[in-house]
């Protein structure tokens, strides 16, 4: 009986638990566990067999005011979890400078997932791909031009570690074992698809994740199903999962996972519900029937599945990435992805087909699916030319130009996104046309408005993989300008050290031009500070083609509903409303024809300011330049009646060009 006093409290605790009396104690770590079961080939959550049905959503592609709505619709679809990427470059814009406020408040997003009863599969990178600018890596890594990304290069590892020391401590208290809702954490992303195949790097990441998150959390990898992908992407101590779309044979694909994980749960971490779009290619779509059938097959086998994407959203501002396959392929502004929830967050036929499949395997939550959000046709917004870009350099580049003998890249002048003007002077009289040119593939990614003495030369633009020469004339001392645009850094494959700007010399009849003034433009700050700027000269050169700003305002009738912008007669550029950068428009190239405008960027009771930067050419209709918010863009500016079909309105990409085309989704 000597030990009686020590036993009594334990006995009491046992009695309380036995009678299911709620304890006011924090959940014991032992009570919450999420583990692999290699005997029964499943996960175990709190000791019970478990499999998840999950969907991907990227908080960086959804306006914060819409987070709850999208997550609620995912919950109501019957999902038990969401899979979430953390884009490093979204949070660390400069080395050691962090941003976790507003749309970047990842902790607030995670709080919402927990509130709604969703589990989280977290994918903190450091590389994420995601068709996001540079696959989520900060472009400042390229300030050291010879850095070897995604490898054991000490410069790269040092940057990764200081980031993980900021991010992962925010994650640790949210792990399932610690009372949170994060059940597992992915290390790197499809590393087996990367040429480096550096196990030292993966081992280093494993060490950092363990040191910062503890020994209990389930860490995993995701790779394609090819032997070399599984060979280079997997590591002892990281559970290997795979990804494949409805075009793959499920038995064969999971057979590939079994090469590397003979036992344990079957997991498809990216089951493709649709696919991304590139500028200049057909709109991608995947049939609901195929998506639902493949999902049912996997669930039948007892697999855990994450659907990529469940809600794609939008590449606002400059965040879209690009691919490289024979040539540079920039991704569109819309990341609708033909996903079950459309770009505007509306349930589609595909969502209901998926929900029906899920209902055969686990109960759906009670209650109806929320309806599509209302859209509003605010109509035609007349715009006026406000300034030629080249006349506004004082406002767009207040710190003044950088001087350099030869052109410098964006990275060399620490410009992450957007636009830079390169300016020099003709060194001699050019009375007869001479060839002005850049080496092939050195215009990254588009050059506009090559002007000599303010006159546009040639077509008006140069493409990265197109012709980069033209004929010019002029006098010694004439100013020569060219505007360079970063269209998004490559996010997948070997070429992710994707430098931007003028990567080679511009030459006049083969002799390099020198003595450059380089203007890194901060257009977003200028736009956010409100147009018009008193400091701006009025557009002087009437009828001049080339990059120019157009502005206008519109009022809302007491509502701020979502809408879509059309660009009648416009070619290519960038759109802001109330200083919010809605992304690139490029109806001339397509397939995307409109931009999604979330209602949360609109003002009620005061004018909404619209700013358009048109880079190429505007062919305005008889009523003058205008953009149209879902109406008012009929032929010759007549009011056009919009269809009120929500499924159609949820798609900002025009499927017409691609009718009938369908992509397998498994690459
Ligand atoms: C999938 O692959 C397995 C094994 O190769 C094969 O037996 C089966 O017929 C295939 N299924 C389909 C639908 O092609
Ligand atoms: C991209 O990477 C591949 C493979 O390493 C290489 O062959 C090719 O030259 C690279 N292309 C560019 C434009 O850097
Ligand atoms: C530009 O030309 C100069 C002079 O010929 C040369 O030294 C320099 O390497 C060239 N720059 C590039 C990026 O080719
Ligand atoms: C909107 O434009 C008006 C003038 O048209 C200007 O006074 C105001 O500062 C602008 N506001 C913003 C937020 O851009």
UniProtKB/TrEMBL annotation:
A matching Pfam family: BetaGal_ABD_1
GO biological process, one term: carbohydrate metabolic process
InterPro entries: B-gal_1-like, BetaGal1-like_ABD1, BetaGal_gal-bd, Galactose-bd-like_sf, GH, Gly_Hdrlase_35_cat, Glycoside_Hdrlase_35
Domain of life of the organism encoding this protein: Eukaryota
Keywords carried by this UniProt record: Glycoprotein, Glycosidase, Hydrolase, Signal
Single annotated GO MF: beta-galactosidase activity
Annotated Beta-galactosidase galactose-binding domain residues: 547-605
Gene3D superfamilies documented for this protein: Galactose-binding domain-like, Glycosidases
Residues in Glycoside hydrolase 35 catalytic domain copies: 43-360
Matching PANTHER family: BETA-GALACTOSIDASE RELATED
Record protein name field: Beta-galactosidase
Taxonomic source organism: Melopsittacus undulatus
Lineage: Eukaryota, Metazoa, Chordata, Craniata, Vertebrata
